[in-house]
Amino acid sequence: MNKHFSPRAAVRKTWYFFLGMALVGSLQWASPMEAIAQTEPKTLSYSELLQRVEEGQVQSIEYDPATGVAKVILAGEGNQPHTVDLFTDNPELIEKVRAKNLEFLVKPSTDHSATFGVLVNLAMLFIIFAVVVMVLRRSAASSGQAFSFGRSRARFQMEAKTGIVFDDVAGIDEAKEELQEVVSFLKETERFTAIGARIPKGVLLIGPPGTGKTLLAKAVAGEAGVPFFSISGSEFVEMFVGVGASRVRDLFKKAKENAPCLIFIDEIDAVGRQRGTGIGGGNDEREQTLNQLLTEMDGFEGNTGVIVIAATNRPDVLDTALLRPGRFDRQVTVDLPDRQGRLKILEVHARTKKMAEEVSLEVLARRTPGLAGADLANVLNEAAILTARRRKSEISTLEVDDALDRVTVGLKLKPLLDSKKKCIIAYHELGHALLMTLLEHADPLNKVTIIPRSGGIGGFAQQVPDEDMDIGPTRSWLLDFITIALGGRAAEVEIFGMAEMTQGAASDIQQVTKLARDMVTLYGMSNLGQVALEIPNGQVFLGGNDWNRSEYSEELAAKIDQQVRAIASHCYAEARRLIREHRPLLDRLADILLDQETIDGEQFREIVAEYTQLPPKQQKLMVAQLS
Predict the structure, then answer these.
(1) Which residues pair with 265 in a beta bridge?
(2) CA within 20 to 30 Å of 218's CA: 71, 129, 184, 407, which one?
(3) Can you tell me the distance from the alpha carbon of 290 to that of 236, in angstroms, rounded to the nearest whole number?
(4) What is the pLDDT of residues 538-595, one digit of tens each?
(5) Catalytic annotation present for 429
């Protein structure tokens, strides 16, 4: 078979053939019609023809039996023909023509039906031939693909041109330092092996989604400049048994041929989960793939010069044999960035953005605790999109604030009309915001708003978490947090009464219940003593995130419930007391919020300071803002 045969070319040639035949046929059939159109013959009736023959005015007659039309040349009119429709049998005309001794010619027209039939048959045979060739080509390609299932689908680059270096990775300095040694191993292998150092075989990047694990692997490849293989863990497993193990063998075979080199496996938990947790037992295709991976990384055969970098956000589900030294010698934790790390990340992503001078990336970094690098990049990108939609030339603070709220809270909806619902929502959110400002151990308020958001959010009061608590939240902070969560319900009851309380506090109550129970059963912050009464589930194949009840009596369970209710009741009573004592302040704040729909933290603290003394933490924040 011709290697250069193309099904599309065959189809294209077939269409060209049909168009050519149609053009030739149109020319052949059109020529007599054009001749007739040029002569424009006149018509005679059969009786007129008989009369003209009788009078001797006819010179000649040319008869076409295929069409039943005769062309008559009259005397004295030149060669201009006249047409006459004749019958099948014309005995009278034949008799008179013989009597007058006239020229009578029978000239049948050319019949193209046989030629056209042959052409149609040839065209059909050509189409059938083209279809057969296409089917054979496709079957040959599919059979070749069937034999390539066991080949690795890793993307290979002889010289890693990822376009990313360590300078493009910010906010995760500890992880960069760990991987900098890997780059040194790859660039200067002899310097380490000369003193007996062994190159690490594997580096496992562990961290939440969006923290930059894949970005780090690209940076290592870009810095080292060695051959680079990249593949996802899910690409090893197929529906055919043995394909995953074959692909692992093929991948490491190619890597050894190009050593020293890097292999990056993204989402390795797709293939590296603990063995023996599935229903199918040890014959599972995924487990066979994992067994082959374990053998290739540290088996009887050496694996010199090949470094495997893997990324996952679920290290708890990985098989222990995969995590031991000799396979993954190093486990690098890529945590969420701190304030300085977020500032560096924002500076990296702000290089390509037109930022106004008023935009403070340091303030934005302080307001975004818990956000990963991907989230911060999304915030600046959303700010750029909003700027373009508003037809501005630079990204201002307003776009940054709106983009942050859109990413963290939800899409802004149309403001509520003046109604009782809007008033209740205002007092509910002000209940949270006022307690954030009055309680001593609470995190400061960033802003409070009653502009609704997508997802059924009528408004929100936003805090700026204090990241200086390195030891974690204290008991006093937890109690103040529960009090703040119950502030919305407390404000509804104090202002509108028990009959007007709404279901807006449902999520707050769920959060309070979980946190109070954790204080009793996990943190030992109750009268029941320093005992962990609940333990993690530990069943990986069932999720592994739930908490199981430990073996304790029903009497102890009742005491746990009493302690949880006691904590919630105490904090709720404290919230109602503070709101009751500061009712005039709450009413003034409600008037301002209903008018402006949003109050930022600085303005909120200035108004509260006019009525009462702020806690020391809030006073320091006001002094810092004024300075």
Answers:
(1) 231, 310
(2) 407
(3) 10
(4) 444 444 444 455 567 888 889 999 999 999 999 999 999 999 999 999 999 999 999 9
(5) yes
Q: Which two tokens stand for residue 548?
A: 């199981």
Which whole number is the average pLDDT over 151-180?
68
| DSSP secondary structure string for all residues of 29-75 | HHHHHHHHHHH--EEE-HHHHHHHHHHT-EEEEEEETTTTEEEEEET
User: In terms of Cα–Cα distance, which of 54, 25, 345, 18 is closest to 212?
Assistant: 345
Percent helix, percent strand, percent coil in the chain, to nearest 5: 55, 15, 35
Tokens (6 digits) for 326: 């000799």
Longest Cα–Cα distance of the chain, Å, equals 142
Neighbours of 200 (CB within 10 A): 17
- Please report which confidence band the pLDDT of residue 5 belongs to, taking 50, 70 and 90 as the band edges: very low
Cβ pair 90, 133 in contact under 8 A: no
Q: Which residues contact 286 (CB under 8 A, 6 or more apart)?
A: 237, 244, 271, 273, 278
Kindly tell me the burial class for residue 17, based on how many C-beta atoms sit within 10 Å of its own C-beta (0-12, 13-18, 19 or more).
middle
What's the length of the chain?
Answer: 627
Helices and strands in the chain: count of H runs, count of E runs: 22, 16
Q: Which residue has the higher pLDDT, 508 or 86?
A: 508
What is residue 537's DSSP assignment?
A: -
Rg value, the chain, Cα: 44
* Residue where the block lists tokens 């509260």: 608
The half-sphere exposure of 56 on its side-chain side, counting CA atoms within 13 A, is 2
Residue 569 carries which DSSP code? H
- Quick one: pLDDT band at residue 28, thresholds 50, 70, 90? very low
User: Distance (Å, rounded) from C-alpha 255 to C-alpha 303?
Assistant: 9
Identify whether the C-beta of residue 36 lies closer than 8 Å to the C-beta of residue 82: no
Give the C-alpha separation, 95 to 101, whole Å. 10
> pLDDT tens digits, residue range 241-271?
567 778 888 888 888 888 778 888 888 888 8
Q: What is the DSSP pairing of strand 330-333 with strand 202-206?
A: parallel
Say which of 267, 285, 296, 429 is annotated catalytic.
429
* 612 close to 582: Cβ distance less than 8 angstroms: yes
Nearest residue to 490 (alpha-carbon basis) of 573, 434, 426: 573
Closest CA to 343 of 361, 369, 367, 368: 361
Closest residue by Cα to residue 64 from 27, 24, 105, 94:
105
Cα 374 from Cα 412, distance rounded (Å): 22
- Rounded CA-CA distance 546/541 in Å is 12
C-alpha 297/C-alpha 293 separation (Å) is 6
d(CA 438, CA 145): 70
The continuous run of DSSP H or E covering 534 comes out as strand 534-536
Contacts of 200 (CB under 8 A, 6+ apart): 182, 185, 307, 329, 330
